[in-house]
Amino acid sequence: MEGNIAEVGQYIGAGLAAIGSGAAAIGVGNVAGNFLSGALRNPSAAASQTATLFIGIAFAEALGIFAFLVALLLMFAV
């Protein structure tokens, strides 16, 4: 009986850790949306901010990858 409870705990923990992947998708959308809003307001400055856009997307996506890694570790390694 204890083994099943521990397995259920692993899956619940992995599911909670996987929420970070969804939050990363929201973060990427927020970064891209704000960039697009700023680019539409001032199109001449958009070209100089493209690198900042990609850095922001990379950081947001890295957090999602870390959350996915934690979820996999909770499911299979613990």
Automatic annotation (TrEMBL):
Occurrences of domain V-ATPase proteolipid subunit C-like (ranges): 12-74
Pfam families, per database record: ATP-synt_C
The keyword Disulfide bond is assigned to this record: no
Membrane protein topology class: Multi-pass membrane protein
Keyword Transferase: no
Site feature (Reversibly protonated during proton transport) residues: 61
SUPFAM superfamilies the record matches: F1F0 ATP synthase subunit C
Keyword terms: ATP synthesis, Cell membrane, CF(0), Hydrogen ion transport, Ion transport, Lipid-binding, Membrane, Transmembrane, Transmembrane helix, Transport
Major site of localization recorded for this protein: membrane
Compartments, record wording: Cell membrane; Membrane
Superkingdom as given in the UniProt entry: Bacteria
Residues passing through the membrane, by range: 12-33, 53-77
Annotated family: Belongs to the ATPase C chain family.
NCBIfam families: PRK07558.1
Chain's role: Key component of the F(0) channel; it plays a direct role in translocation across the membrane. A homomeric c-ring of between 10-14 subunits forms the central stalk rotor element with the F(1) delta and epsilon subunits. F(1)F(0) ATP synthase produces ATP from ADP in the presence of a proton or sodium gradient. F-type ATPases consist of two structural domains, F(1) containing the extramembraneous catalytic core and F(0) containing the membrane proton channel, linked together by a central stalk and a peripheral stalk. During catalysis, ATP synthesis in the catalytic domain of F(1) is coupled via a rotary mechanism of the central stalk subunits to proton translocation.
Name of the featured protein: ATP synthase subunit c
Species whose genome carries this gene: Paracoccus pacificus
Record gene name: atpE
